[in-house]
Specification:
The chain is an alpha/beta fold. α9 packs across α10. It starts with a helix and ends in a 15-residue tail after the last strand. The protein binds S-adenosyl-L-homocysteine. The site of S-adenosyl-L-homocysteine has 21 residues, from α2 and α4.
């Protein structure tokens, strides 16, 4: 039993079952035993690998995308270049290296990383030591300036609540106890007005997830973009409209029981891009149409970049490079499992690669 399993069993024995949101928050960010607080989980040696760790091309292309968006908005000075949940700092390192020659951009930017885990901050500090970077716990502490911000596999790590439909309403998935072991179960009926509109397109037995924790963060980002300019590019595992059980635990690249080893496995759930787009719109910004990661990278020029990099490679290095290109772009790999949206002011054009949403 992990230390966190003991802590949560005691808590549940005293105060009763907890929501998946409470469970995820404790597992991922508990100050002593949380998953992100205690370990470096990213990469082939860890539990999961992310796009920036697979190839430098991912960060290079997103960096050029943001640089073009900054130029298209008349190069506002000063501005904030930020990232939510930067992991090893690899994405930001690739963005900064690629944009170094964009005239005036680096002189105008204030690089800020939003990172909750001190362990991750230390890794980011090391990776980005050549740059002047600062860290914040939350988005609200950012100065009111034009904001160009990236988030890759950030929103899927934020806690979700999960509801299962019955004939008339909803029951919430909870973590309770079976003897002293943690177990998943369902609450008594759980009235939830946020799901009133989902009674129309669901039936008995259907599962819907909501990610309340995403709303304040994205709302603040979108308000700033609407008021001061900038854009957000969000890439994640997910789809348009939440449907079905996507709560999952991963340890050493294998899917595992999500309540077996709390604090030792990564917990995620798919991102509902429709919900993110709605938050952006309510805050007065525009959300683009959702696009597959593979298609976005193709539009940003990954084929030409991959071919240029391949020219200097031979043997195993070339094979790794080709495999990385395929992993990022192919429909049966990350190419269509991962999606992206951009958020921009209503008055400016969207960043390159993104189309306006027909529903706006
Ligand atoms: N974007 C990186 C890492 C993804 S893992 C990449 O693509 O490789 C998720 C990251 O978000 C980790 O750095 C984790 O510590 C951070 N994180 C998770 N929850 C957070 C929160 N609530 N606030 C800030 N950072 C958070």
């Amino acid at each position: 039993m992990t230390a966190l399993a003991r802590i949560m069993s005691r808590r549940i024995a005293i105060t009763g079952p907890i929501s998946l949101a409470d469970y995820m928050a404790e597992c991922l960010l508990h100050p002593e035993h949380g998953y992100y607080t205690t370990r470096d989980a990213i990469g082939e040696q860890g539990d999961f690998t992310t796009a920036p760790e697979i190839s430098q091309m991912f960060g290079e292309l997103l960096g050029l995308c943001l640089a073009q968006a900054w130029i298209d908005q008349d190069s506002p000075t000063p501005f904030i270049l930020a990232e939510l949940g930067p992991g090893h700092g690899t994405l930001m390192a690739d963005v900064l290296r690629t944009t170094a020659n964009v005239p005036n951009m680096h002189a105008a930017m204030q690089v800020t990383l939003i990172e909750a885990s001190p362990k991750m901050r230390a890794l980011q500090r090391q990776k980005l030591q050549a740059y002047n970077v600062s860290w914040l716990d939350g988005i609200c502490d950012l100065p009111q300036l034009p904001l160009f911000i990236l988030a890759n596999e950030f929103f899927d790590a934020l806690p979700i609540r999960q509801f299962v439909r019955d004939a008339k309403g909803w029951h919430e998935t909870q973590v309770g106890l079976d003897k002293e072991n943690l177990t998943l179960g369902l609450s008594q009926s759980a009235p939830i007005t946020a799901l009133d509109h989902r009674l129309e397109d669901t039936k008995k037995g259907d599962i819907v997830e909501i990610r309340a924790a995403a709303e304040p963060i994205l709302s603040e980002v979108s308000h700033r973009i609407a008021a001061h300019g900038g854009c957000a590019v969000i890439v994640d595992y997910g789809d348009w409209h939440s449907r079905g059980d996507t709560f999952q635990a991963v340890e050493k690249h294998q899917i595992v029981d999500p309540v077996a080893r709390p604090g030792a496995a990564d917990l995620t759930a798919h991102v509902d891009f429709e919900a993110l787009a709605n938050v952006a719109k309510i805050a007065g910004a525009t959300a683009s149409e959702m696009i597959d990661q593979g298609q976005l990278l193709a539009r940003l020029g990954i084929e030409a970049r991959a071919a240029a990099l391949a020219q200097n490679l031979t043997g195993a290095a070339l094979e790794t490079h080709v495999a990385a290109f395929e992993r990022l772009t192919c429909a049966d790999k990350m190419g269509s499992l991962f999606k992206a949206i951009a958020i921009a002011p209503t008055s400016t054009k969207l960043p390159p690669g993104f189309d306006a949403c027909a529903l706006n």
